[in-house]
Write a structure and sequence with these properties.
Strands 1, 2, 3, 4, 5, 6, 7, 8 and 11 form a nine-stranded mixed β-sheet that branches. The protein is 39% helix and 24% strand. The protein has 254 residues and is α/β, with parallel strands linked by helices. This is Glycosyltransferase family 2 protein.
């Protein structure tokens, strides 16, 4: 059964070649760019002719929908540029697509700040990435998009890890965190949701305790402690952003 690997990208020249090299075994690679200003598209064209650009960003969900629409095969493997398919995962996928249609989850193992993170709630971090193109697709969420699974379709697990090289450095983490916080706050505000600064503090503290204590982040060493602090900060930021959008007055003109 033929399979299409589908990627949505923007300014991923740093990662893309190594990602696509781990996808050489698929029948088709589809790359949808969101308006990169680096060599992302040139690198993508070294591996596939199915490269296109949609720069009018409407969110991760819509962009994944657009990318999937460009795929021509019966199975979709959705991959991000900062991910790598291991040989074990490849073999598991090739076996799975010979079976009756189902949606498959994969475990992601993330490398962050100098080590693989095996605790902190980050692993196995199972995500739905392999599915029949005619039966499943992503919702239109601005951020934290989800795969819509048809009622009655089974969800199964693939073996092997999807390696995730998530952040290059602290600045990269803070930039991505700010982007996600903004998108989260925009989406919640559009839904009529509100927040308080107190709720931001409460959720931030809860995030730290969950990651570092309940999810054994302390076993990830200094990186686990840093990630718990940064995640608590990011959690507070998104609630603060929502509070500013919905509870404060616009700038008064004088």
């Amino acid at each position: 059964m033929p399979i299409s690997a589908v990627l949505i990208v923007k300014n991923e020249a740093h990662h893309l070649r190594e990602c696509l090299e781990t996808l050489a075994w698929v029948d088709e690679i589809v790359v949808l760019d969101a308006g990169s200003q680096d060599d992302t598209c040139a690198i993508a064209r070294e591996f596939t002719a199915n490269v296109s650009v949609e720069a009018d960003w409407q969110g991760f969900g819509v962009q994944r929908q657009r990318a999937q629409a460009r795929a021509s095969h019966e199975w979709i493997l959705m991959v991000d540029a900062d991910e790598r398919v291991t040989p074990e995962l490849r073999d598991s996928i090739l076996h799975a697509i010979q079976q009756p249609p189902a949606v498959y989850s994969v475990s992601r193992l993330s490398w962050c700040f100098g080590r693989f993170i095996r605790h902190s709630g980050w692993y196995p971090d199972r995500v739905l990435r392999l599915y029949p193109s005619a039966k499943a697709g992503y919702n239109a969420s601005l951020v934290h998009e989800k795969l819509k699974v048809p009622e009655g379709m089974s969800i199964k697990r693939l073996s092997g890890d999807l390696l995730h090289y998530t952040y290059r450095d602290l600045r990269h983490y803070l930039e991505k965190s700010a982007h996600y916080a903004q998108a989260w706050a925009e989406q919640r505000a559009a839904q009529g949701k509100t927040a308080t600064l107190g709720s931001g503090v409460t959720h931030g503290i809860a995030c730290f305790l969950k990651m570092y204590v309940l999810k054994a982040g302390f076993k990830d060493g200094k990186q686990g402690f840093l990630l718990a602090l940064l995640s608590a900060h990011s959690t507070f930021n998104k609630y603060a952003d929502l509070w500013i959008r919905t509870r404060t007055s616009p700038v008064e003109k004088r």
